[in-house]
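Exercise: predict the fold of this chain.
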Amino acid sequence: MTIELTERGIAATIDHAILKPDFTRADVDRELDIAAEWGVFSVCVRPSDIPHAVRRLDGTGVAVGTVVGFPHGTTSTAAKVAELRRAKDDGAVEFDMVVHIGGLRSGEDDMVTADIAAVVAAAEGSVTKVILETSLLDLAQIERGSRLTEAGGATFVKTSTGFAGGGATVEHVSLMRRTVSPAVQVKASGGVRGLEAALAMIEAGATRLGTSASATILGELRARAEGRDASGAQDTTSY
């Protein structure tokens, strides 16, 4: 998949994350408005915020996604399925589930695959993304988790929740991209806070970025396109 390195092209890769547990309604509204202003692909909101986000973003073209089994992945498969079904009824159209991290680390591959497959089935064709939480895994576990994600039928394999003390790295994104077939996409999430980091993840093979720094990333790109640096001074750097 080729991504245009333009403001519109990069915006189309961004899932704007609005997941902090301490966010007030005013905080959520501010972030929803940022997503709409910059025209990102989607927001990823807390499950309880889905109906409000759907109403506030109506007509903006920004899709509403949410998380399942977040942030630890240790809820039962039945609970994950029920959570997804409720989220879908509330209007979410994309679903980022956390893999059973302990199960993956333990080598319980059948359980992990079945957990993913059940959530994918409940999504009924909607986009599903499996969060591996790569900061808690070694390279072999990341590779195996990527393969199990594909075996379970998910649309994306994703690096991180952003809540486990680590985020996406170029090494991990590249490994995930090499491991899965072209039928599965890669989402880099966690620590993608500026344009250079975003471009590095795309170069490594990510086609979606999970970030709360959408305005920073796209603002830096707009400034470059206009020949300015981020402060507004003239920028003579080519790119």
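Check your answer against the key: Confidence is low (pLDDT under 50) at residues 234-239.
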